[in-house]
Amino acid sequence: MTAAVYRDWSCLPGDLILIMMRALAIPDMLRAGAICVSWRAACIGVRRVRFPITDSSPCLLFSCAADDADTATVYSVSTGAAWTSRLPPCSLQERLPHGPLALRISTYLAYLSCNPAAGSACAVLLVHQCSGLLYFAHVGDDQWTDITRSASLPVDNFFHGAVYNKNDGLFYVLHESGCVYALDLNGPSPPVVRAILSGRGVATRLLPEFSWGDIILAPWGDILHVWRSKRRRPGACDPLDDPEAYTDSILLFKVDVDDQKLVNMNDGDLRDHALFLGFNASMCLPTKDFPGLKPNCAYVTNESWRQDFLTKFGFQDVGIWNFETKILEGLGNVQSDHPWLNWPSPIWITPSLSR
């Protein structure tokens, strides 16, 4: 039999291209799709199988009991589809004395003001939850600036998270005490820091001693203050020490920047949006753009880094909080069909194959 002769790689039969595409790593597969029209079509076909994403809604990323050490399972709450994805190698792992665990503990949460392609106009805020310190830099800077010490911010507790408001050009950070600070990182160092909320206010009277806070910028411009508490078993001294503690209450407030107070919100005030709360940055998304999501609910995972490590191998607090019934509902059949490990905790990600 005479071997077929092809002018170049672009003329290979479609079935051979598909076989090759399925064997490629994700970055290589996406690059291959840009070679020519036929390879682009093959790449789209393989993507539909390997990554059944129909929209840009958040997905749950977790370690499944059946996964290899270098793979993770991704679950789309919008479509109910699940698939595995190979994780990129960690270049820092070999330089850390305790391997990947030390890397996870040392992780900072990074918040950007805009696309890094904007150059020095892009500011990056780092929140180190373990030490309670804040740092910032602009693209092109030689070093990070310590905001916490230079601006005399409290260092006895922790910062839970931050958001950037492009409408006024300010970062807003939430302290464990309930204080909210506005940071202007556009000018010279040290940055301008202003306290716009002195504490939890009405939330202090409604929540138990332990709760975890989130700060979220709603699409309509309001800054949301979300406080989440957990129920502990009888006899457990602290939910942080209880591996079976689960979400018992979520309270929702709006930050009134002008009057510097919290305003209580009802479930209808979410305007048919859904909240995503977890270990990484939280989000507020319109459900009209994602028909598979429930409106006026909060999709939750474990979000306290302290509980994640103090109750390692404990209960994974994952579900959908119904603000109307005040009940934590299950997240479909994902846990039974793809049982996750007890550690590390599942997190929300927003996968994108466009870049």
Automatic annotation (TrEMBL):
Source taxon at top rank: Eukaryota
**Residue ranges occupied by any KIB1-4 beta-propeller domain in the UniProt entry:** 67-322
Q: Which residues form a coiled coil?
A: none
Instruction: One Pfam family, please name it.
Output: Beta-prop_KIB1-4
What residue intervals traverse the membrane? none
Q: Which InterPro entries match?
A: KIB1-4_b-propeller (IPR005174)
The name of this protein is KIB1-4 beta-propeller domain-containing protein
Q: From which source organism is this entry? A: Eragrostis curvula (weeping love grass)
